[in-house]
Design goal:
By secondary structure, the protein is α+β, with helices and mostly antiparallel strands. The strands form three sheets. The protein has a four-stranded antiparallel beta sheet.
Length: 520
């Protein structure tokens, strides 16, 4: 009871701030039941009359509500299918900047997490340089065999887990009430959205997982000459502390500095697009927060990414789906694009492939009447998702995250080169992957893997046959013993029972054989 009252109080405060800032004007009253419409009208009475549209007011309100709600807003920015395109676009601009906590507190967290005095680990440790809702960053120096090394140390805010846990409980309570009061909103699955946010935040709060993401991305891109990531220092990393190589470079949004350094803006814009597509299509693991603040260019002209708290992952089916779609639009093969949707199982089979291809043509043809530098690949995918909704295509979270990241990446690249031809830039990456995995070479490799599996199974057949023989011998022995124990007068009466016993034993034997084969 007390917990419910606490949640009610927290949600009442959040509702007041949202109403005061005018964020509730995003809600369509016609989608609400009569009682909820009355509540919305009352809430609109306390709205502060200020400039700016309602989407901008939403980000202002979330910033006022604190770190948990800022993170929630950033999470919703990846779900335009829920909040709408205008609100999602505004929420992308939410600045996850919070006042820093004192250096002394950061030192206590580091020493507690790593189990040693700060002086034994770092030669120098700065005041906080940047602070966000979950952690803040310090510049430090460590001593290595090669000499002193400058590093960035990310430290989790003290008490942040408890604060997020309280706010998430209140959000869950509000989501349940929303589902109860507005039945039509159940299709948006508000409780599942809050649960997904909770999982995302829990991952972000364990900095060991971020270090693992850095390590995986570094391994995937070790042969890419135009892209690199910092190196994690594992012995100085724990759940609440992440230590990685310090990046000296120019932010990608500082075009003047890039030109002053004599770097090629056009080549750099191309690298941004191709690197992202390589990570998404080739590796199936991509940086999902590639805004200009997280991207640098070093003195060798290489693209460098930082802040790996939000990553996206695509399975082979999704990677093929993306590659086939992009290549299909490049070649104006709309039937191919439509078939990919059906083959992937994204569009229910009761729809017509030809009708779907016709709808896709409505997206593709207009872009081919424009100059290459006017075509937005991100906008293309956005329109594609809108069309697919008409054909009952289920929302795929990983594809929505990919699309939203592509919007940001395209904006970064076009800021560097306004005349960037997205199709010419993308085609080499897409075509290379298609030829490698779907062309003759890929088919030969898949066939080779199949033959290797069969060869391994054949090599183990003698051992499995012996195991099966031993199992069957035990079954025969148990059956014989049971029959020998029976009195002659009860044999006929219980023969049916013995038949069932024998059948059961054979079923067990066959199950064991299937399990044995399944291991291979």
């Amino acid at each position: 009871m007390i917990g419910s009252l606490v949640h009610l109080a927290r949600n009442a405060r959040a509702g007041f701030v949202l109403a005061r800032e005018g964020a509730l004007s995003l809600i369509d009253p016609n989608a609400l039941p009569p009682s909820a419409r009355l509540g919305l009208r009352v809430a609109r009475m306390i709205e502060r009359r200020s400039g700016g549209d309602s989407a901008a007011r939403l980000s202002t309100a979330l910033t006022r509500l604190g770190p948990s709600y800022v993170k929630f807003g950033q999470f919703l920015a990846t779900r335009p299918d829920i909040v709408g395109a205008a609100a999602a676009l505004d929420l992308e601009r939410l600045q996850d900047r919070m006042p820093p906590f004192p250096r002394a507190e950061a030192v206590r967290v580091v020493e507690s997490a790593l189990g040693r005095p700060l002086s034994e680990m770092f030669v120098a440790f700065s005041e906080p340089l940047a602070a966000a809702s979950i952690a803040q960053v310090h510049k430090a120096v460590i001593r290595t065999n090669e000499g002193d090394l400058t590093v960035a140390v990310k430290v989790v805010r003290p008490g942040v887990r408890e604060g997020f846990a309280r706010d998430l409980q209140a959000m869950r309570a509000a989501a349940r009430l929303f589902e109860r009061w507005v039945p039509d909103a159940r299709r948006l699955k508000p409780v599942e959205i809050v649960d997904a946010l909770a999982r995302s935040v829990s991952v972000e709060m364990d900095l060991r997982l971020e270090a693992a993401a850095v390590s995986e991305l570094a391994e995937n891109t070790k042969d890419d000459l135009d892209f690199r990531v910092p190196k994690p220092e594992w012995d100085l990393t724990a759940r609440d502390v992440l230590t990685i190589t310090w990046i000296d470079g120019i932010r990608l949004n500082d075009v003047a500095a890039i030109e002053a350094a004599g770097l090629d803006r056009v080549a750099l814009g191309r690298t941004v697009i191709q690197s992202f597509l390589r990570h998404a299509i080739r590796d199936g693991f991509f940086h999902a927060d590639m805004h200009p603040g997280n991207l640098f260019v070093d003195d060798q002209g290489r693209l460098v990414a930082v802040d790996f708290g939000i990553m996206g992952r695509l399975g082979m089916k999704e990677r093929r789906f993306l590659a086939e779609i992009l290549l299909g639009f490049i070649q104006r093969d709309y039937l191919r694009v439509a078939r990919v949707h059906f083959e992937a199982g994204y569009v229910p089979p009761h729809h017509s492939v030809e009708d779907f291809a016709q709808a896709i043509r409505a997206i593709g043809e207009p872009i081919h009447d424009r100059r290459a530098d006017e075509i937005s690949m991100a906008k293309l995918l956005t329109l594609l998702f809108e069309i697919t909704a008409l054909f009952d295509m289920a929302t795929r979270i990983e594809l929505v995250m990919l699309q939203k990241t592509m919007v940001v990446v395209e904006g970064v690249a076009r800021n560097l080169d306004p005349k960037l031809d997205m199709w010419t830039t993308s085609e080499p990456v897409v075509r290379t992957w298609m030829e490698r995995h779907i062309g003759p070479v890929g088919r030969i490799e898949e066939a080779g893997k199949g033959l290797m599996t069969l060869a391994g199974l054949a090599a183990d057949l003698p051992d499995m046959a012996l195991r099966a023989q031993r199992i069957l011998a035990r079954v025969d022995d148990l059956t014989a013993r049971n029959l020998a124990r029976d009195d002659a007068g009860r044999v006929a009466g219980r023969s049916r029972g013995h038949g069932w016993n024998t059948a059961a034993l054979w079923i067990i034997a066959l199950s064991l054989m299937i399990i044995a084969f399944g291991e291979f």
